[in-house]
Structures are given as structure tokens and as C-alpha cells.
Amino acid sequence: MGQRFYFDTSVFGGVFDKEFDDATLQLFERVKSGQIICVYSDLTETELLNAPEKVREYFKNLSRDNLERVIVNDEILALASLYIDQKVVG
Length: 90
What we know:
three-stranded parallel beta sheet; alpha/beta; about 15% strand; single chain
């Protein structure tokens, strides 16, 4: 089993962004090969509903073999708050 990386909505859009497409496609190749497990949340799924069609289709067509869906819950929200409080992320 590969490393688990959390992918937010912008990562899926990066496939179609000239500035990020090379690196993002390489990242998804690592997902396809099982080197990385793409972890995404129910929030990401909701945000993708408003994404451009090509981004929604790209996500929809990914093999579920190396994807893991998590549900945003109180524990996740508490961890996010801690990361922000400790300035791990902005």
C-alpha cells in the first residue's frame, strides 16, 4: 500500500492548469500505480460538483482502487483548527 496524501479540490483542477499540469499528472500517475493513495473528503466531492465538467469527469474516471473517501467530522475539524492554531497551515 502506498503513502496516503490528502487531495483537495484544487489538485484535481491542476490536471488542466498549464502551470501545474505536468506535476499534477505525475502525481496522478503515482496514484494509478498504487504508490500513493489519494485521500479526499466528502467536502471535496461537494466542491467538485461546481467544478468545470472536464475536472468532474477526470475525478469520476479515476479508478477507485487507490482512492479513499473520508467524512469530515468533529475529529477532523479539531485537527484542522489545531493545524491553523499552530501555524502548520494558513
